[in-house]
Amino acid sequence: MKKGHRIFSYIVFTIIFSFIIALQMNCSSDSSADTAENSTTPEVCMPTPEVNGPTPEVYVSTGFPQVVVVSGTNYEMGRQYGQQTATRLVHNVAILKSRLYDQYGKDTVTSDMKVWDYYIKKYTPGMSDWFKGMVAGCSEKGYRLNYYDMVLSAVYPTESWARPAAPYPGETGVPQLATTPALPSQADRPPHFCNALAAMGEDSADENPILALNSMVSTDAMDNVILIAFPKNGSAFITQSSAGKLAGNMGMNSKGFAWAMTAIMSETSQWGIPEGYFQWLCQTATTPAEAQQFIETTPRGGVAGGFVMADAVNVMVLEANAEHFHLRNPQEVGETGSWLVQTNHLVDPSLSSYNPGWIGFTDSPTRYNTVFQYLTEATASSEKVDWTFIKSIFASDDWYDSSTSTWHINEPGGPGISNSSGTTTTNIFQPATLTAYLGTGTPSGNGSPAYATGEYVKLKLLETPKKVANQADKDTQTIYWDSVDTFQMELNANPAYLTLPVISEIEEKLDKAWYAYSAGLDRLSYASLETNAGKARALFAAALTYYAEAQMYAQEAKTVLLREKG
What we know:
The chain is of the alpha+beta class and about 575 residues long. The protein is built from 12 helices and 16 strands. A hairpin with a 4-residue loop joins strand 12 and strand 13. Helix 2 packs antiparallel against helix 3 (about 105-125), helix 2 (about 75-105) crosses helix 4 and helix 2 (about 75-105) packs across helix 5 (about 145-160). The longest helix has about 35 residues, at about 535-565. About 50% of the residues are buried.
């Protein structure tokens, strides 16, 4: 009897064990762009809500961003995103969740996420499948998160800085809170400010539109990735965002549509679509007109924004808060050329009365005037707007006082500079050529995060991950050899400023650049030979991450040379 019981127990154990192994294999198998549509998360693969697992090791971000490459359905792309960024993503979730819990309390935050999610599902439903995939991808890497952690990551700036004081709308079905949480004063709220500009025609270096955003947010959201997505449904797109978000407040897609959003404040925020706009604008919008229609016909939650937009021909900005909007084109508010500027207040006279009285604490008018003056002077001197021009003004510590028509020179921490300690990314897009220049951290390179360089990664949004990586290989070599040749020319001239310490510093950066390039070439080669789509995609992402590092080191070497040369 005992022997039979043991045999029966063994058989049951074997069946259960085999089922678990099969289930794990099913949950961890790769999802490639060739798999069938999977718009819902297998329930058995969902991590248990509110279980975070053991405390991960310390993770610290640097100024060298990770490039993430995903493809397929929204769920599959989310899963790949989670797999590739799990360590970063979990780190960010812990920071953001702890900040919000301290600010409003766990119960309030949990209920708020359900409200924001209601509007996300109603107006941008594709985000939900991304979120479910991200949870599954992190789970496969050993991290236990839940769906609302992903919602929290997506809406963090709005929730932290512009949570509506109004009760939950009845349509959401979310029970009202017993007490209304106290909102922080405007001065105590974390920053979420930005500077944006766009130029076209004769004011642009190649006469094609160029659009840029200097994104200033709380350092809570400092850890960034460059996301390149190839959706089964929608347009391929590139964006730079904190790990866990599907898009930053900017992006460019394969339809030649680029955009950037600066937060626009109002006296009262409303419940509606918060950062859900970002993923929709990247993946779904095909033209500025289509984006305008969507923005104007959906509830603009949180801080809405100044949506600066460009296609292959034109630039414009849709100024909006939660209740009002106006489409503005160049030369409508005093611009001296085919360019425009947008910061964090409503500029057009038809909207200016809707600006809150406390707008001054954001320095938005001063930042607007500073960038506006840079472009005014560039137009007067026939200087063209290109990525190097934008790089220089965003890295400047000078600001312009329009009340006295005076420049204040070299004032780090000044009231209107773009080289802010709160800057997390600077992004420049040229939609006509599908070229992006992406910078991480303080624009000058002096500040956060650790090892920030102030340099940019150049990437072209082409049809496939392989084509993107191959082009990055060529661009990285061009950037590297330009720096080497410039350095060698100066060495041959034997100028006094090229002392041994300066030479050593430049040579070290060039060595690091070539080392990273070599690693990128290694990963690209294996990716090109790989027959498994999922493994190839991960290798292309690794190659692009190395190429990004190589480009930044090479540019940094040239910047040191030019700085020493004076």
